[in-house]
# Entry
Amino acid sequence: MRGWFLAVALWCYGCDHGLDAGPPGQSGIAGRLVFKGEWPPEAEEVAVAVYENTPLQVADLYELSGWDTGVGIGVPFHDYFVPIEGDGTYRWVMVAWRPMGSFWDFRSLLGCYHAPGDTLPTPVTVLQGQVAGGVDIEVDFGVLRGEEVPGYDLCVGALPGELVGEAGGG
# Structure
């Protein structure tokens, strides 16, 4: 009996685990964050944020359509779900972090959703009562050390240069 339980437990652990589809009938965006590299010891919070439009000025960073701040610190991956109120196409799904004692700003950006081959962040369409799944994002903490990280320039490149310069990033 014990061997059977262990076999089932190992099989379940090896499964993809699926995505949290959210409560029945709820609309949203779901995916998996995969973290590469060493977590910064000063990390206090990591979030997935969804924007209907790519921010064009600093004030636009606060025009969120939804978010998930339940990402565990130090984890190798996190399956996220961002509830979305209405139908629409959301042009920027991004991941940000906040160090202890700090507030969110442009330097918080860790990455964004983009399908292979896209040259800009990939838009995600959400329909009422449905979950747009498979919106997976790889986060490489090397970006915090100034390392060149594939896909990061694509996320920053979608933003106006003055926004990047205003915030002290890039």
